[in-house]
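Please check this protein record:
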Amino acid sequence: MSVELRRHGLHLTGTPLSLDATRKSPLSFVSHAHSDHIARHERTIATAATLRFMVHRLGKVNAPLPVPYGRPFELGPLMLELLPAGHILGSAQLRVIRDDGKRIVYTGDINFAPSLTAEPAQVAECDTLVIESTFGHPRYVFPPREEVLGQVEAWVRRHLERGAVPVLLAYPLGKSQEAMKHLSNRGFPLVAHSSIYEVTQLYGELGVPIEPLRRYEGRVEPGEVLFFPPHLVRGGALAPLWPRATAVLTGWALDGPGACRRYGADVAFPFSDHADCPSLVRYVKATGARDVITLHGFAEELAQVLRGEGLDARALGQPKQLALL
């Protein structure tokens, strides 16, 4: 069995199983419900939470196969198991166990920082590890999440005190809810764009309520904090709000002032739902994997770091096959 990087995602050769395929496939594991990991497959293996988010985004999901964490199940001669990935609510890693006992793990996007809204990532011990490398360059070392959230809270208070509307720009699924949960726990009333509001209502249905929260309808009451999707800011949607201050929550904040310009924000906070480079290296070591395949983002840079640590690591770049074990 080998892993093949096709145009629309990974595939385990010799099996019907794709991994986070972005085009319709006969059978795909979906690690989480961000738009670059989902499609309308004929059959979908995912957690119940991920499937619920997929229905919200795509409509009906054909032949969903909801799988709880830590409950192995058979797929032909293979044994499959989902483990928490810590990225967003319902995100999962997949461990595949061959009939000879060899274990292969695909992480999907993964995060190890303590979370208020996502299940904590679990170390998936394995022989071969295929790991996402979004922030796999050594320059990406995130400050502690609690520290960053404290800075966000202080920024919000400062602008509320001067009578400005604080606007936080964050991805509608996952990152928004994490920051919202922190602020709601501190007593801030929240208002959110419809795309964020609707996902947050689903979080409540899935056991992670975030209140008080209302849907944004063109106005913000005194004392409220507005959450807004970054891609809609440049269309002038926030023009009626004045005075206002905007901050973007993104791991790319570590790249410097360019992050603010990219999102049209006044300030950028290094807040991410992905692991940074040191965390990825620690995780790889904890799995005990003898063979490591890095994927996406800074895959080659992470593989180089891992080789420097004495590990057998290589990047999976252009579509090709690499033998698994």
Observations:
- Helices lie at 48-58, 145-161, 175-185, 194-205, 258-263, 277-287, 299-308.
